[in-house]
Specification:
By secondary structure, the protein is α/β, with parallel strands linked by helices. It has 12 helices and 9 strands. The N terminus is likely disordered.
Length: 394
């Protein structure tokens, strides 16, 4: 069953060039794509990915900043025009000279439905710590919700190109908010699913958004090695719920895939109830915790059609010239160090430039939360044009 809805999208011609409107839907939305946007007329054209559709100024997360909840145009992997929501924040005072460089944060697993969108729910550490830190450092901060979180359809969870398009297109959108003074130079940070998204943004940037200068990728505890995760994850109670979310999302994204090929009847019923409730991450994790083998009758990695998508959506198979900083905790129970070791080896083998740092005793979130100073230093060096080093074996 395919959950994504195919719709007709239209943008009124006179509004395409608008850089800022008020409200989260606004008359600048893509008609039929949800929210309040568009009038459904037939005389318009579809906006280019990255077109800012609306920007609503909201309460700042700290002093000396302005924050906007934005809606912008993008494109699903099947070519359907879509809207994506997110956050843009910038220092209140205009820059003394030129434009401000951009640091983007790609968030970790939140869920599959609109109620789970971080731009609406807020992420305490991000809002209270990370965003003020980046603003105080003089950067414009942007954060996509990704496709389907805050906008129609089930979020294509761990679908790499979908995530990456959302990541890159919000940088384009931020440049259209005059008060943000955002440049086209960005370093993308990401944790967990966000580390997955950040890596894919580096892989597609040249083709998808050639005018955006992605100068570096900071990928902490990144989702990767999805075939291995599928084989090893069901034995780990901490990972089973993530597997459920992934299979829901893949069935919604790829018409040839069906969860009925994977699960026993009871598990299918439980997952269907969670989907009907539009549950976010934690209810999925809680419900799957004690389900032996995650309820699989057949592992996705044992079915060719599923395996193809798992490999396709694992980062590190496409070489990139963009420097990569990879951060991993040795005590991470969600993204195992052994999986990130595999990713590092593959990145080195294809000629990418990963600087891989493992931190003894750090858990999942700590790979980033305890390494913000190091990530800031590394990012500043990329903006300064310093040559990055990698830790690949000679």
């Amino acid at each position: 069953m395919r959950y994504l809805v195919s719709l007709v999208f239209v943008l009124a011609l006179g509004l395409i060039g608008c850089s800022e409107t008020t409200g989260t839907g606004g008359s600048g939305g893509i008609a039929g794509s949800g929210g309040d946007g568009g009038d459904g007329g037939t005389g318009g054209v579809v906006p280019q990915p990255g077109t800012l559709l609306s920007a609503e100024e909201i309460d700042p997360f700290g002093p000396n900043m302005k924050v906007w909840r934005v809606l912008y145009a993008s494109e699903a992997i099947d070519g359907i025009p879509i809207e994506v929501s997110g956050i843009v924040a910038a220092p209140s005072e205009p820059p003394a000279d030129g434009l401000r460089d951009v640091v983007e944060y790609a968030h970790g697993s939140a869920g599959l439905f609109d109620a789970c969108a971080p731009s609406s729910t807020g992420l305490p550490w991000v809002n209270n710590v990370l965003t003020p830190t980046l603003i105080n450092a003089g950067y414009v901060y942007v954060a996509t919700d990704y496709e389907g979180l805050g906008t129609p359809g089930i979020h294509p969870y761990n679908v790499g190109e979908s995530e990456a398009r959302g990541v890159l297109d919000i940088v384009r959108a931020a440049q259209q908010i005059e008060e943000a003074n955002a440049s086209n130079r960005v370093v993308v940070w990401g944790l967990s699913q966000g580390g997955h998204a950040a890596l894919f943004s580096g892989e597609i940037a040249t083709d998808w958004a050639p005018e955006i200068e992605v100068l570096g990728i900071v990928s902490a505890a990144p989702g990767s090695e999805l075939e291995t995760v599928s084989r090893e994850g069901p034995a780990n109670p901490d990972i089973r719920g993530f597997m459920w979310m992934l299979t829901v999302a893949y069935e919604a994204t790829y018409p040839s895939l069906s969860q009925e090929d994977l699960y026993d009847a009871e598990t299918l019923g439980t997952i269907a109830e969670l989907v009907d409730q539009e549950a976010c991450r934690d209810p999925f994790l809680d419900a799957a915790q004690d389900v032996e083998n995650a309820g699989f009758v057949t592992n996705p990695a044992d079915l060719p059609a599923w395996l193809e998508r798992l490999v396709e959506n694992s980062p590190g198979y496409e070489r990139t010239e963009i420097p990569i900083l990879m951060l991993q905790g040795s005590a991470d129970p969600v993204i195992l160090q052994s999986w990130t070791d595999m990713l590092f080896d593959r990145l080195c083998n294809i000629g990418s430039q990963p600087d891989y740092r493992v931190f003894e005793g750090y858990n999942h979130a700590q790979s980033l939360t305890l390494n913000v100073p190091a990530a800031l230093e590394w990012s500043a060096a990329r903006f300064a044009g310093e040559v990055a080093t990698d830790t690949c074996p000679e």
